[in-house]
Amino acid sequence: MTRFVPRERLELAKNAEYWNAARVPKVDRMVLVPMPEANARTAALLSGQLDWIEAPAPDAVAQIRQRGFTVHANQQPHVWPWQFSFVEGSPWLDKRVRQAANLCVNRDEMKELLAGLMVPAVGSVPPGHPWWGNPQFKIRYAPDEAKRLMAAAGHSAQKPLKVKIQTSASGSGQMMPLPMNEFIQQNLRECFFDVELDVIEWNTLFTNWRMGAKDPTARGSNAINVTFAAMDPFFAFVRFVDSKMAPPTSNNWGFVNDPEFDRLVAAARTTFEAAERDKALAALHARIVDETVFLWAAHDVGPRATSPKVKNVIQPQSWFIDFSPVTMD
Question: Please, what are the domains in the chain?
Fold first, then answer.
């Protein structure tokens, strides 16, 4: 979280001409204040302690705007999922169960919970993206269909399926992990799931993600909630489904091991003409959705809130933001 300190001139002569030409106070330095709790960040902004916060508390968004502050948001290539375990004994080995979980989450209501600060996710990239493909499984809110799938898999309200998800209380790119996971927990309860949340510190979670579902650090979890960027094919797809990317090599936490995934990854890796490569990646993504490797919930919009003194903030479709245009009154 950020406190900006402006000044009228730079003392260094080599930069004086630039600053004089701009005729506005520029940001001299930023003081970064770590505040992992959203309500604390929001209170600090509204009280004038901070000029800029990341991820404001959703239930305070209306108040933030009413007080003359600005909320910036823009859809990013960023996915908020549950990543399933495919190791022996995992409850997610049954494809019907994975599909049911995806059909039981009311993403539109989750968006309301977050005051609009998300985009519902129905895959690792959104429809219309060059890598979207043509998945046959359509992710949507269909709880009756989810219940039918769970019943076919042998589960009911009297015999719910126990699953355990490892997540964090906060952390880099995690959006609002506790309320979001509690929301999913309630949704899935209606579809015969009994969800246990294992909430740990963010850096520990990130380390565990690299260790894999077979490692003791999973603590019996059969899914993990770590957000990820989908800016390039490796980050978006390959590291999660290529059997060679299983821990400790990369982030195939759930030990997906499917020859067809490996074939599609190899095809994408060895296709160098852009349009054909997009087709290869679209085929890979379509299979990822059809095989429901994740429970997809949201794409982040990177929300941040700034005081009226902060000007010229350009909200990117990226985790990375350019501070050079930013000025202070």
Answer: 2-74+303-328 (3.40.190.10), 78-299 (3.10.105.10)
